[in-house]
Write a structure and sequence with these properties.
about 260 residues; mainly beta; Immunoglobulin-like; 2 domains; 2 helices; 19 strands; about 10% helix; about 50% strand; Spore_0_M; Sporulation-control protein
Amino acid sequence: MVLRILKAVLGVGVTVDTVLSETTISPGGTLHGEVKFTGGEVDQKVEGITLEFTALVENDAKGESHTSTYHFHRAQVSGPFQLAQGSTHSVQFEIPVPWETPVNSLDGRPLPGMTLGVSTELALDKAFDKGDLDPLTVEPLPVQAAALRAMETLGFVFQVADLEAGTIPGSHMPFYQEIEYWPSGDFRDSFQEVEMTFVSGKSTTDIVLQADDRGSLTSPSHDTYQRFTVNNDEPGDLVEQLRGQLQQLASRRTA
């Protein structure tokens, strides 16, 4: 929940309270909530309310790494309305969650390195105010969760997750997520690390694997990159599929 007071043009206070019905969502799902207002000492015209999905993204431009705030999805939840002096007003909303929304939790366990949230933008008398970030927990799609668990079954140990600036083939996002693993078990001598990326849609998900490479997925090397597509509803045995894909990647690196 975000509670803040906006100062209107005449110096009076308008209280805005954004309440999310749930703080845990999944890609392709729906975010429900309500924005509540209490008018100040004079009548005000609210010109619109917009909610934004927000993420912190690593940007390595010009060889220097820094973190930037990306607003990757905007949804208008209200058009203009009058907010009378001292009155209350509320707007309920349902916002579709983009299929490519990155994940930051698995079975209730946070994935360290990820910051995701939603903020409320209010247009009031031709002025704009953007509220604080309301944190969101994004659990993976079943097919994504199965892939993450399959990596653990194959002996890979999760290390960290982050977002990198850039758009990879097939994606509509200005960034991509990297979920980093260290190998053990059968693959301990094949890789130093493996990063997994998802490009998901309504019907299918592409699983992208990148090994031992500090470059960018926007222009990956053939020797460090493997990509395959699975059906969201019937992905099959992802342990064996990932084993085969990783073996192909390892064989190219040693050829």
